[in-house]
Amino acid sequence: MKRRILTPLSATLFSLFISTSLIAASPAQNTDSTIKIEAEYMSEQQSLADYRQFYIQPFDLTDTKIIPAPWLDQKNFRWDIPKKNIKQLQTMFKQSIKAGIEANSDYAVVDDEQAGVLVINVSIISFTPYADRKDTELLTKGSGEIRLLLQLRDGATGKLIYLLEGTEETGEDYQPNTDVARLQDADKLFHIWGKHLRQLLDSAQQ
Predict the structure, then answer these.
(1) Domain boundaries, the chain
(2) For this UniProt entry, which residues form the secretion signal (predicted)?
(3) What distance in Å separates the CA atoms of residue 202 and residue 26, rounded to the nearest whole number?
C-alpha cells in the first residue's frame, strides 16, 4: 500500500521563527535543537556553579495532555501512551541526561536528593501529534510538538535554581507514523538535552 505524506503547514511556519538554542544561557550556538523558549528563570541567590553532583528524577509524563493538531478530527481523536513506551522513554531519558552530564568527568550523577545535589526534573506538559496514532500508513515530517518544563532545584531545600519552559518539535525527517519512529525521535532529543544541559552547567562555572 502506498504511504500518504503529511506536511503540516504549522510545522513549517513554526520552524521560521523558533530559537536555535536549547538553553539561552549556553555560550555555544546550538544547531541541533530548536526550541521556542517561553519562560526562563535563574535564581539570583544561588548559582548552578555551586553544584557538581546531580540527581535525575524520572522523566515525567504523569499529567501530559495529548492535544490533537488542528487539522485532525477533533471529535474522534483518541491517543494513549502505552505503559511499556513510558518505561522505555524514562530509561532512555536517564541514560542520555547522565551521559551528557558526566561527559569529560567533573560532574557526577548520584542516587539521592541531598545537600549539595542539584535535582533535575523534566516534565512534558503537552504533546501535539501530527497524525492519529492509528493511521500507521501515513508519513509525517517529525512526530509532533511537545511543551516541556525543565526545573533544577536544590536537593536539600527544594529551592528553584533554574527553570525553562518552551515548545519543541520532535523529529525532523519524513518517517512512518509509528511508535518505533516516535521513540527514535525521543532518543535523539534526549541526547541533545543531555549535551546542552552540560553546556549550561559549564557556562555557570565560567
Answers:
(1) 41-205
(2) 1-24
(3) 8
Q: How far is CA 118 from CA 101, 107, 205, in A?
A: 12, 11, 15
- 41-205 maps to CATH 3.40.50: no
Residue 48: which of 157, 150, 158, 160 has the closest Cα?
160
pTM for the model: 0.81
